[in-house]
Every structure is written in C-alpha cells, then in structure tokens.
Amino acid sequence: MKYMKIQDAFEEILQYAHFWNWGPDWNEAKKIYTAFPNSHSVLLPFAYSYLEELIRSTTSEYGRELYDDKGQPLKNRKVGMKLVNLAITENKEKNPEYVKILKEIKGYYINSNVTDEGDNRHSVAHGYMHPRFWNQESFEKLIILIAKISKYSRF
What we know:
The protein is mostly helical. It contains seven helices and no strands. α4 packs antiparallel against α5. The longest helix is centred in the N-terminal third of the chain and has 17 residues, at 40-56.
C-alpha cells in the first residue's frame, strides 16, 4: 500500500472494524484526534488494544472458548509476540501478503527501552514509559499500519 494520510487511515480502519464492537469507538477516536491532535497519548493504548484483537480475529483463538488437555477452559490466550507468531503460522499459506505485514508488526512487540517513545506495545501497555514520551509520529505510524492490515480482519 502506498503512503496513506492519517484521515484516510482512519477511514480504512472504520471500513473493516467490527460494526458494533469497534466501529463507534474508532469513529470517536477519529473525531477526537481530528479536533485534538495532541490526544495521541490518550488514543495510543486504545489503538494497541484494537491491533491485538484485529490480529486475534485472524487466528483460531478468535470468537470461541479454548480448552486445555483436561477439558477445562483456558483462562489465558496468546498475547503479544505469541499472538503475532500464531497469526503468522495460521495465515502463511492463505494470506502471504498479510504475513509479510505481520512480520513488520513484530517490531511493535519487542521489549521496551528508554528511547521507544511509544514505538512498541510494551512501553504503552505496561506503563514502562510515561505517556508524555509517546509522540504523534508513533501514533500515526501505528494507525497507518492498522489500516494496512484492516482488510484481513475476520470480525
């Protein structure tokens, strides 16, 4: 996909987002960000949550109960890098273009360091770094990346 503007990225996400579960929230996120571009630090955790569910929607873990060897419901599902790896494994035959983007997404799941500035999930989701260090460019790059994989969602 060629270069995409941030407003186009929001529209692409809205086109593929689950209508009831995510559509209204993405519409609000778009309105908030348009009116208040400095809101990126508030919206970044939301975007990472969505990214994870979007990836999960392309795996066997989406939309069903999982059980262990003893028939007991699993309380934990794959998250982070394990989820990305599951999506790569389960999609490599049928969606090689999606897998190529997932490999790019792996960079968002590496361990945090002091120079990340919101460039990966760990610094955002685990409170490793204060939100004032998350920058607008990091947010827009993430939104554009989410837009790139939105068409592969299976909501």
